[in-house]
Write a structure and sequence with these properties.
The complex is a heterodimer of chains A (about 350) and B (about 100).
Chain A: H1 6-13, E1 31-36, E2 41-48, H2 56-68, E3 75-82, E4 100-107, H3 115-128, E5 133-137, H4 145-149, E6 157-158, E7 161-162, E8 165-167, E9 170-174, H5 189-201, E10 208-214, H6 221-229, E11 234-239, H7 243-258, E12 263-268, E13 273-274, E14 281-282, H8 289-297, E15 301-304, H9 309-317, H10 321-324, H11 329-348, E16 355-358
Parallel strand pairs in A: 2-3, 4-10, 4-11, 5-9, 5-10, 11-12, 12-15
Antiparallel strand pairs in A: 1-2, 6-7, 8-9, 13-14
Chain B: E1 6-12, E2 17-22, E3 27-31, H1 32-37, H2 42-45, H3 53-56, H4 62-65, E4 67-73, E5 77-82, E6 90-92, H5 93-101
Antiparallel strand pairs in B: 1-2, 2-3, 4-5, 5-6
Classes of the chains: A alpha/beta (about 350), B alpha+beta (about 100).
């Protein structure tokens, strides 16, 4: 019986192709700490690019099967871990959000499509997988995050930096914590831009895998400021199945394309209603509009969220449904969407910003 | 994206030139003078029916035309500052590419 070599194990594992990155997991550097005992016990670490990886279990099964089938291997001990890589191969450290690896904006064309509900649950679902997650409420005129997370406290200031509010395993910041909770912000555009920059620069976000940014609807100051201040990893656009919502979502998409921000995809919210009386799916706003729209535009469809009374009720109670009722259809849908968002985000890691030089 | 993306941007002060290498293999060179006259900011171009500074003037003094700094705006544009301190223009990558062919 010939003893198995490191090369044998790696070439077996190289048959596993990451479906999102389109390359094999060995050349992507996902296999770490490989050891082979003389008696044929193989152990290694499988390092994913996100803890929310949608193919995590499939990778584990494939790896165990492929390595286990090699002649001379007596056992396979494999550890699944993850390390969210920073967006872009950044040539120089950024002074804006230095410890944040990925910034994900949640946007919509129209208001009232459930952007904030999606943002809160997306953030909470990512945090549940073990990622370090922040949530920035960039809606200055209508901050929803304090209400939806049941937080009202005043942030502390330590060493001149505003400390984010911690709740539900998330780091939160909103104009609602900074004196705007019960007061209308009657501000012109430049003030809005300044406030958003401050929430990025003057808040001690620390080390985060993901910063989810809940944008106000439309194509105005907040979105522009954000896209100018940081290289966003990408933007997820929320729409409802209604034609008009899709038509306006397209405008948001056009804006981000002009700003060269990658569309991670479309999310269909209020997709269908399951009647508690008859258990039938009702397509109140129409059916399949967002998915068809995504296909037409050539961008990914990230999933559909049902219209569930519990989602609204938990949001009003201040607890994301993925935490409050993990067994509900709504929670399952948010978790699946979060997984898709994480996968689309990982792809951006391999993009590059131009290198600037002054000489 | 239809327009190619830049790989590197070099501001060469000795020549007063901005040199951009693009993903499609092209290299474009832009003089400080060309960039200053192409400044897209509201002050230079005017807005809401009002004429801008560049519509009203025929000549610009030398510190106006000398490149000082370059920075990245998000992932879609450059902000270019001149020796005079003027630096409000946001030059998008497609616009810079167009400038080279005009």
């Amino acid at each position: 019986m010939g003893s198995v070599t490191e090369g044998d194990v790696l070439s077996a594992l190289a048959q596993i192709i990451d479906p999102d990155l389109g390359r094999d997991v060995v050349s992507l550097g996902m296999i770490k700490d490989l050891t082979i005992a003389p008696t044929g016990e193989v152990s290694f670490t499988f390092e994913l690019t996100t803890p929310a990886c949608p193919v995590r279990d499939k990778f584990r099964d494939q790896a165990e099967r492929l390595v286990g089938a090699l002649p001379g291997v007596t056992s396979v001990a494999l550890k699944m871990t993850s390390n969210v890589r920073p967006a872009f191969l950044r040539p120089q450290a950024s002074d804006m959000l230095p410890g944040v690896r990925q910034t994900i904006a949640v946007a919509s064309g129209k208001g009232g499509v459930g952007k904030s509900t999606v943002a809160v649950n997306l953030a909470a679902a990512l945090a549940l997988t073990g990622a370090r997650v922040g949530l920035l409420d960039a809606d200055i005129y209508g901050p929803s995050i304090p209400g939806m997370t049941g937080t009202k406290s005043e942030p502390e200031i330590i060493d001149g930096k505003i400390q984010p509010i911690e709740a539900h395993g998330l780091k939160l910041m909103s104009i609602g914590f900074l004196g705007g909770h019960d007061k209308a912000m009657v501000w012109r555009g430049p003030m809005v831009s300044r406030a958003i920059q401050q929430m990025m620069q003057d808040v001690f976000w620390g080390e985060l895998d993901y910063l989810v940014i809940d944008l106000p609807p439309g194509t105005g100051d907040a979105s522009l400021t954000l896209a100018q201040s940081v290289p966003l990893t990408g933007v997820a656009i929320v729409a409802t199945p209604q034609d008009i919502a899709m038509a306006i979502a397209l405008k948001a998409l056009q804006m981000f394309q002009q700003l060269n921000v990658t569309p991670l995809g479309l999310i269909e919210n209020m997709s269908y209603f399951i009647c508690p009386g008859c258990n039938q799916e009702h397509h109140i706003f129409g059916h399949g509009g967002t998915e068809q729209g995504a296909e037409r535009l050539g961008i990914p469809f990230l999933g559909a969220i049902p219209l569930e009374e519990q989602i609204r009720a938990e949001a009003d109670r201040g607890v994301p449904i993925v935490l409050a009722r993990p067994e509900s259809a709504g929670a399952a849908a948010f978790t699946a969407v979060a997984s898709q968002v994480a996968a689309r985000t990982s792809i951006q890691t391999f993009r590059q910003l131009p290198v600037l030089n002054v000489r | 994206m239809d327009t190619p993306y830049p790989i590197s941007v070099d501001l060469i002060r000795a020549d007063n030139v901005l040199e951009i290498r693009w993903q499609d293999g092209a290299t474009t060179r832009h003089s400080g003078e060309q960039l200053r006259w192409a400044c897209p900011c509201a002050e230079c171009r005017g807005e809401a029916g009002q004429l801008g500074r560049l519509d009203r003037t025929q000549t610009l003094g030398s510190p106006e035309l000398v490149l000082a700094e370059v920075g990245l705006i998000g992932q879609y544009a450059l902000m270019i500052t001149f020796q005079s301190g003027h630096g409000t223009g946001i030059y998008t990558f497609p616009r810079l590419r167009d400038l080279a062919s005009s």
